[in-house]
Structures are given as C-alpha cells and as structure tokens.
Amino acid sequence: MIVERPNMRERKPDLLQGTLDLLILKALAAGPLHGWAISRRIQQMSRETLTATQGSLYPALYRLEDRGWVSGAEGEAGGRRIRIYRLTAAGRRQLADEIESWRVFAAAINHVITAP
Amino acid sequence: MEWLRRECRRLVLLVRRDGAERAMRDEFDYHLTCEIEEHLRRGLTPDEARRRAAIEFGNVEAMKELARDARGTRPAEDLLRDLRYAARVLRANPGYTIASVLTFALGIGAAAAIFSVVYGVLLRPLPYGAPDRLAAVWERNVLTSRDRNVVSIENFEAWRDRAHSFAAMAAVVPTSFTIAGDTPERAVGAEITAGYFRMLGVAPALGREFDPAEERHGLAIVLSDGLWRRRFGGDPGVVGRSLTISGQRYLVVAVMPPWFDPPRFGWLGEQQAWFPFVGTSQKHAWGRFLLVIGRLRDGVTLAQARAEMIAVAAGRERETPSNRNWSAVVFPLAEQISGEAGPALLALLAAVALLLGMAVTNVAMLTLSSMRRRDHEFAVRRAIGASEGRLFRQVLSQSLLVASMATAIGLLAAPAAVRLLRPILPPDLPRAADIRVDAPVLAVSILAAALAALVFGTVAARRGAQGGGGSPLLHTAGGTRASARASGMALVTAEVALALALAVLATLMIRSLAGLKALDLGFDPGGVAIARVALPGDAYPTPDTWVAFFDRFLDRARAVPGVSAAGVISTRPFGGQGPATSVSDPLSPAPPGSAPIVADVRYVDAAALDALRIPLLAGQAFDGRDRPGGPVRALISADLARLLWPGGAVGHRLSVAMHDGITPEVIGVVGSVHLADARTPTGPVVYLADGRFPSSMRDVVVRADAAPASIVPALRSALAGIDATLPLYAVNTMPRVVDLSLASDRFTTVMLSAFGAVSLLLVAVGVFGVFAEDVSRRRKEIGIRLALGARMSTVVRLIVAGAMRRAAAGVAIGAAAALLFARAMAALLFGVAPFDLPSFAMATASVVAVALVATVIPTVQAIRRSPLSALREG
Q: Could you give the ipTM of this predicted complex?
C-alpha cells in the first residue's frame, strides 16, 4: 500500500535550519536525557525563548542518531521505559564544530546589523 | 568508514523495525503525558491541559511519518514493502511467475555455463607463478612469414644468454619413453632445460629439481602426479629410486603436485614425466625442434621483448648462414596456449548472449501482458495519489524478484550444465581442467543477470508507471492503448532479430561442418588402423636392425586375416607436424631472395600409400631398390608437381635442402593429401623412401576389410611375437582420428544448433503470447468488422500482415547483426562465406515460419468464436 507522506518542505520550520541540531547536541552535552526533557532543557537554556516542538524535535533526533552523533537506548523515566539519548564522541566533536560556526555566523550577522 | 557504520545502524533499525516503531510510539505518548502534566502544573483544568497539549503536538501520524523519514531507513523500508507486495503478486499469478522465472533461469544458466568454459580456457590466469609474465618465443621465417616456428638448440642457447628482456628462458621438447616392468608401458613426457620448473614458478610436491650433473648426463626423471599414483601407487619412497626407462637406469628425483598442468602448445601434448634435456650431437643435427618459454624481467613490456628478440635474432643471422632469413617473435604464453580456441568460444559466448537477450525479451513480453491485466489496479492507484516514480519502483522490484529467483535457479543449475557439457567438449580444447563454476564466473553471471533484469524490469516498470494515464478508470475495461501495443510489438521485432542472428550463426556452422565432412581428404581413412612403434637404441642400434624389424613386423601384420595392406610412414596424415624443407628444380633455381617452395617431407613405403589409398597419378611407387645406400628417389604430391613441372614431373631431379642437400629423382606423382587436418589446404609434399632412410620410429598404417579396431589385438600379438618388450602405442583408427579432428567444429555446431533450436522455441512462445493477448483485446474491433461483413480471411490477413511487418523489421536488424557476428567468426567457417546467402535464406525462412505460425494460430482461434459473443462480452 502506498501512503503519500507530507512533504517536509511544506512545513514552516520552528527554528533556523541546522540550529536545532546545535541546540539538541548542547542540551545533551550535560548528560543523557529523554525526548521531552531535551525540549524542556532547550526551553530553559534559552530562557523560555526557543521551543523545539515535537514535530521537529523527533525527526531531528532520529537524524542525529542516523548520523551517529547521538545514540538512543532504552532507559527509564517516571516509572516508564523510554528512550534516553546521549551524546556520542562524534557528537561532541560535532557540537564543538557547530558552536564554532554559529559564533562566526552570529558575529557576521552582528556586524551586518550594527553597520551604519 | 563512517558511512559503513551508518549503514550498519540502519540495518539494525530495519531488522528491529517493530521495536523502533514501539519505541517511537512510547516516546510520543510519554512526551504528550509530560506536556499535559506541565499544563496541569500551570493550573489548567485536566480537559484543557489535554486539549492544549494535543494542539501543540499536532497530527501525530504526520509527525511519525516525518520522524520515520529522518531515521534514514525509508528507501530500504520502501524496497522491503515493494518486495513483499511483489511476492504477493507473483504468488497470485503462478503461471506468469513460473514461465518467466524458468525462461530467465534458462538464459542465465546457459550463459553462466558457457562463460565458465570461456573463462576457464581463455581468461583464468594460468596456474603458474605470475603467469602474465610468461611468454612463448619462436623463430620466424621471414621469407615464408611462417610465424611460430620451433627453435634450434644453438639459437635457444644464444637467446637465453643474450636477451636481457627475460629473467629466465627454458626450452622443452616432447619425448616418449618405455618404462620397463611386468607390463612395459609406453608413456609421453617432455625433456626440459635447466630451471624450467623454477621459471614457471612451480615446485615439485616431493623431491627436488634436476641438479647440474643430471642436467649433463640426463639420467633423471621427474614424475607427474598422475603417473606416480597410477604406476607407483603414490608411494613417496619412489623418490630416490632408479627406474629402467628405454633400457637405461634413471633416478627419480621428484614428483610434481597434482594440480600441475604443464603448458601445452605447438607439438607439446600430455606430459607424464620430465627429463633433463641433453643437447647431443644427434639432436643438434635435428635443426629446429625446441619450444621455448621465457619469463619477462619485471618492468619489461612484451613490445620491448619483441624488439630485443628481433635484434638478437638479427645478430644470429649475421653469425651463421643457417639463420639467414630467420627472425624471432614473442607471444604471451596464455594466448599461445588458448589462442586457437578463442574464436569458437567467443562465437559461443556471443550466441549465448543472444539467447539471454531472447530470454529477457520473452520475460518482458510476459511481464507486459501480466501488467495489462492489472491496468485497472494501476489506474486506481494513480487516482488515489501514487506517484509515477513510486509505481515504477514497485513494478521494478517485482521484476527484480523474478530475476533473483531465476538467477538463483540458473546459477544452481550451471554446475550441472557444465558437467553435461564436459563430455562433449572437443578433446583438444586447451585447459579443459580449468573449467568450473566458481567465484569469478558467478560474479560475472550475477552482473549479467542484474543488467538483463534491469532491461526487462525497466520496460515493464515504464509501462506500469504509465498505467492509468489519460482517463484510466473509464478505459481499463477493454480499451487498447497505443503505447502498450507499441512496446509489445517492439519486443516482437527484437525477438525476431535476436533469433535470426542466432539461427544464421547456427546455419553457417552446420553448413561449414557439412563441407568439412564431405571434403575429399586425398586419402581414404575408412578401414585403416594406425599405431606407432619406437625401437630402443640398445636393442636396435643400427639401421639394418630397424629395417629387419619393420620387415618382419609388417609381414606378420599382412598375415593377419582381413588385412589387405600394411606399411610404414614417418608421420601419418592428421598426426601432427612432420619435417619440412625447401625444395627447387636444380635446373632452374628460384632467384635469390624470392620465397622458396617449402614442402612437407614424409618417409613412406609403397604399402603405406596403398593402405591409405593415396593414388599414384604418374610414374611408379617405391620398390625393393630403395635400400640403405641405394639410389635416392622421391615421389611428389600433385601440388608440388604443378608448381615445378606442370608438363610432367616424372624423371626430373628435385633439389631437397634436407639431408645436407640431396637431389632425388622423381619417380612418381601421387595425389594431394590434407596432411595436417581437413581445414589446412593440401600443399607440396615430398615422399622419400623409408627403405632408403630407415628410422627406429615409424607410424604403422594397416588397412583391414573389417572394422579397423578389430585387428588391433592381432597387431599387438604380432608385435609381441617379435619382441615382447615393445609396446604398440598411439593405437587408433583413422576414421576416429579424422572424426576427432572435427571435434571442435562439431562442438561449436552442436552448441549453436541447440541455442538456435531454443531460440526458435522462445520466438514461438513469445510471439504467440503477444498475439494471443493482442487479438483477445481486439475482439470487439474484430467482432464489429465481422458483423459489418468483413470476411474472416481478410481480418486474419490484416492482423498477420501487421505481425509480419514487425517480423520483417526484426529480420532486417537480425540479418545486419548476424553479418557482423559472422564476419567476426569467419575463422571458424570452412568453405562458407560469412555472408553465405543460402544460410541467411534458410535461417530467415525458419524464423519467419515460426513467427507466422505463432501469429496465425491465436488469431484464427480468436476469430473462430462467434462475432456476436465477442460484441456482447467485449
């Protein structure tokens, strides 16, 4: 049976493309978390400014897992068996890279908007 | 390696797909629960909290789809789903499935079997160390441009010492010997110069190579694994023992490993043992007779070696008068060994490729008509939103499933096919032991199968993807779509073209073989038994003893009941190369620098010519005057007589370069004989009298009134009655020898004919299928025509004419292709031109006849039904 699936591009991204990866990796840098906790952590870290909705969080998580930057394993939270994600060594390197390129990017944008 | 780890992760996910789905569901549920709890904490009512969370979460199923995409396993999952679906479709259509799987399996199995022969004989590296560095080195006669001439001892030694292109060079020459024992046995082997095995990169399984002292006196032997096991029961203690061979004691120094298959080419045949080659003065007198193999030095190309050898040979030419007009030439050893088998095997490979093409076409036809029955289904799918690409991939995966099953069956059957093939392989096929279905053969076969599957899969899948174009749901009940018909008809054209090309190749070979069989060989093989006798030097030291022995033996042979003639000849017809020499008329010598007449030389007695029924055309045959020390007289072949003395040769003196230059009187002219084999044309031959030039080794030819094989026991006992230690060897009958010489042609013909027959069957089935389908879909149209008063014959003619137009296009394409193939295999054909009109006509007639019958039968069947029922049902 063939199911036509929604096209990713038709959805409005909640965050700048690629930024979400950085946020997730950063959220996991402090220690393993499950999905909902990651979204909460992102919210807290951004002082309630940024929200990773479920619709973008889980695809992003699975994609990062496919790339080998995070790894998910069966764990427990609140008395339920649930997937807990942790940062891999490759993910840690990737996080450093992403932070670096974000700094360059942010500085550039900053130059642009402060230009006379 | 990151990508590999990634694919492994995907594979794990794929295998644990259900677990991943469950984890995702749990994760999403838990996420929602947490959101609701969060909202409750903020003071919302439970209902409101649940509502808000659900809104924020959005469409869970759509979310899941996005998440699944992100997992990276989507393409594989789609493929799995498609394959499962394809499996269901195939199970539901067993007729289609069995027919297409078997057809494709036939094509792949046949292709794999033939390719295993081609690979084993032509492509598999020779079983020696670094085999691509080995080369055969020959002398080359510049005047006759006779390439690949055997080499003299002096030239071999000079080459070995001077040519820097070669890291090693060794010579080898066949020999035969008698092992003494309770049952004396005549065996064949080879004499080899120092370092021969080392140069080949092989080492004995037991023992060592010859030492320098043995190289000098020659009294040592290396046994083949076969001889060692057969004659010595595989006893390792035989190494170091002495054997009595041809009257002398030989030390067994080694046994070769079982897999060792020595290079065989030129006049090198089977080898059961090896001896050191000792260059005695007698052997020096033989002139050119060595086969030379060299190992190219690292980094030296074949072209460089050739250039250097020409220079080295030029040096030899300046040094010695006997090397005038002689150069040297180098060929890769693999090509040297298998080269002659190449054209026939490549023709078979081309034929089997055509057959595979036909199998592919038939499966495409079957698939198309099975798809046509599913038009409605495809239209519905298109209508509810399946994309073209998706449908394409789905039909393709169905074809791939068919192809995989068929390939598995075909390749499993391939070893059995090779076993069936082995007994009918021509006995002179080089490297037959290297034929087997193994990894390289399987790899290439699978690749070919994948390509073939892609071809028919794409044809079908394009059709499937288009399924439901236009206003599909309305049409599918019985409409005829032009594009669908067009692809079916194009397949008919392709099928006829492929079948015609195959049929032409088969017919050409059949006619060529018939020509070879009908050829007048110049002698009459029927009723002739042949054998060889070699007298050991210790018991038979002088020419007188040889003459006495053969006189006694032939007398006894003639006394055997049923024997009408018995004689001796140095090398019987179809018995390999004998000596050759340049000849001329001493009264009008050829101008210097012009190509001399090179004639084969045979030593015979009058009885041998009688036994072989080589006719005396003029003059007289040898008689009692031809004794050692008597006058030197010669018979010449009609070809030579025509060249030198068209007006009559008898009475002239002939100048013969051999025997240090003799000028025998020509006493008679005999008929021309195909000496080497049927393909080789007759040529100049000088027959010298065996009585004048006796030898310790002769072929015995005996003509019997009965079946020639039946007198062999009597010949054996006649020999045993004279000397029980002498074996009668190379025993055979001339009809069998002639028959064997055609083995390669017969093999090619049988195989091509079989492929041709299968191709006609495939045409019949394929065309029948397409037209049965076509006519049944046009029943309504036909019904209307008939109802409006068209005559049945007119309608049949209409449909058949359409088919024949397709067939005609196929014939044109097929004939063009056949011409290309036939020109490439011209070397295989005897007495038949590649564009032989009768062959093309016969092939075309048979293919068109089959196609015609396969069209008319379903058409008539369909029309026979009442036009009214067609209209009602249609």
A: 0.80
